[in-house]
Every structure is written in C-alpha cells, then in structure tokens.
Amino acid sequence: MVAALESVDGVCIFSDRSANRFLERAQPDIYIKGGDYTLDTLNQEERRTVEGAGGKIVIIPVVPGRSTTATLKKIASL
To answer: For residue 75, what are the CA distances in angstroms to 9, 17, 25, 44?
Structure first.
C-alpha cells in the first residue's frame, strides 16, 4: 500500500532488526520515524548514518489506533 502512494519513490523490505545497513546504501535525504521515538531514543547508529550522509531525521506525531502494531493486531484477530 505504501508503494502505491504517489509521494513514495520506493519501498524496501529488510529482515534486519536495525535499518542501518539499508540507510548506509540508500542515504535518504529524509528519514521519518513515528512519534514514539525521539532523537535520543532512536537507534543512534541509524542516526549517525543518516546525519553523517547529510540526511535529516523527522519525527512525526503518533495517530492513536493508526500504527503498524495496531494493524498487525487487527489482522491477527481475524
């Protein structure tokens, strides 16, 4: 669904627990994380990778009931 959005250039699915290897290769201009993170609680290796390549980290607000976790719970209950 995300890949179908006009504003999305690409989607990458990876099995690593950390996005660091992906971030090293992709070198995104903007790395967005949900509001349950802060710059201090973000994986600091990921932060160094993004910022070291000149990227910006943006924390977006949490929308109650609209999260990956909530979606997975709904699917699991079907």
So the answer is: 27, 22, 32, 31
